[in-house]
Amino acid sequence: MSIPSLLILPGDGIGPEVMAEVRKVISWLSTERSISFEVSEDSVGGAAYDTHGVPLHDDTMAKAQAVDAVLLGAVGGPKYDNLDFNIKPERGLLRLRKEMDLFANLRPAQCFDALADFSSLKHNVVSGLDIMIVRELTSGSYFGEPRGIFKENNERVGINTHRYTESEIERVARSGFELARKRDNRLCSMEKANVMEAGGLWREVVTEVHKAHFDDVELSHMYADNGAMQLVRAPKQFDVILTDNLFGDILSDCAAMLTGSLGMLPSASLGSPMENGRPKALYEPVHGSAPDIAGQGKANPSASILSFAMALRYSFDMGNEASRIESAVESVLADGVRTSDLLQAKGEKPVTTSEMGDAILEALTKSL
Ligand code: NAD
Q1: Does residue 270 share a domain with residue 251?
Q2: Residue spans of the chain under pLDDT 70
Q3: Could you tell me if 328 and 364 are in contact, meaning their C-beta atoms sit under 8 angstroms apart?
Q4: Is residue 109 situated within a structural domain?
Q5: 3-state DSSP call for residue 268?
Q6: Is 88 a catalytic residue?
Q7: For 114-167, how does the pLDDT look when each residue is reduced to its tens digit (9 = 90+)?
Q8: Among 160, 226, 230, which residue's Cα sits nearest to residue 194?
Q9: Is the CB of 265 under 6 A from ligand 1?
Q10: Which residue(s) pair with 149 in the sheet?
């Protein structure tokens, strides 16, 4: 079998700093676990604009389509704020998502015990939390036509269309159910079937997919507004939450904040299977390029390292190695190692980005 391939796109701001730590983990896997990847690197976002005048060069796009998984750092920064909309750094990331047709966005919300006090909720509400939000990413309100601001009866009217086809709902539902099978086998689908026709269709199709292919998974339905309430009231009741683009945007940010710092949150965006059976995939931390701390060794690399763990689990079927990395991050936190975003008490001394990466490597080595 050929060596699996990875394309690393560090991007801007703290992107290159955190991706350097991911590279260390990749090298560790090669030397200590004999798991090798063919790794290439390219530019995206502002870095690509600086070199090519566009936020994603066509050659980079072609490479992203050809590899088994893309690992992205972050894009954007004040230097690029005044660029034309179409060449802003964020357009590079949007182009990747669109052209790779990454329709399922996976956002885990996991609360490491050592960080439970970071949440705005009570310790016992979030401690041990481990849920996964699957958000549809390429359709719904953010893409439906017609859209725009129009003139009607002498006033402006803003229109966005909440549109879903059966096949769009079906493919993301399948992703959600397959994921639930690898976890606690429970899926809660959230929409507004009570007031939206598209929500009604969503519920119908999810129910049909469940009945036809996944009736071993426990399925429940919830209106998205109740879902938001339940997420902050008793988040541990959920395993996988399946929802559309608009509600998923809001619910996943809400769930993210249950866990504390942005520097801890990974994500995956998956598309249809390629010829080798692996899904098209892009893994990235939830955070942005953090220009306020870029270049100072203050960034927490955990979100990017945990995103790589997701790549091992979802692209390469290496769940054991993914769990090993997650446990290493957890044990480092339990030992009190903290980057500056995770400091709680005055007088605590933060470690640098690179020291955090080294501590995770040490924990990995201890796990052998
Ligand atoms: P941000 O996520 O970059 O930063 C928000 C806050 O969190 C900052 O105070 C930052 O220092 C802190 N932070 C973020 N990641 C951290 C980490 N790993 N370790 C420690 N602290 C961390 O969001 P922002 O400030 O709103 O945006 C900055 C730039 O990033 C903008 O140009 C924005 O468009 C872009 N952005 C990119 C992405 C992406 O690449 N996917 C996502 C969000 C924002």
Answers
A1: no
A2: 1
A3: yes
A4: no
A5: strand
A6: no
A7: 888 888 889 899 988 999 999 999 999 989 999 999 999 999 999 999 999 999
A8: 226
A9: no
A10: 158
Question: Domains in the chain: how many in total?
Answer: 2
90 touches ligand 1 (CB under 6 Å): yes
φ, ψ for residue 166, nearest 5 deg: -55, -45
Please classify residue 93 by burial: count the beta carbons closer than 10 Å to its beta carbon, then call 0-12 exposed, 13-18 middle and 19+ buried. Answer: buried
C-beta 263 within 6 A of ligand 1: yes
CATH of the domain at 253: 3.40.718.10
Please report whether residue 112 resides in a domain.
no
Which pTM does this prediction carry? 0.94
| Cα 210 to middle of ligand 1, angstroms | 37
Q: Are residue 208 and residue 269 in the same domain, yes or no?
A: no
Q: Are residues 99 and 185 in the same domain?
A: no
Catalytic status, residue 225:
yes
Q: Structure tokens of 342?
A: 């995770």
142 included as an active-site residue: yes
Burial group, residue 26, by CB count within 10 angstroms (0-12, 13-18, 19+): middle
State which of 242, 258, 274 marks the end of a domain: 258
For residue 364, give both structure tokens: 């990995």
Ligand 1 site-directed mutation target among 257, 287, 304, 340, most atoms within 8 Å of CB = 287
Half-sphere exposure of 347 (CA within 13 A, CB side): 1
In a domain, 228, yes or no: yes
Domain presence at residue 35: yes
Q: Whose CA is nearest to atom 12 of ligand 1?
A: 290
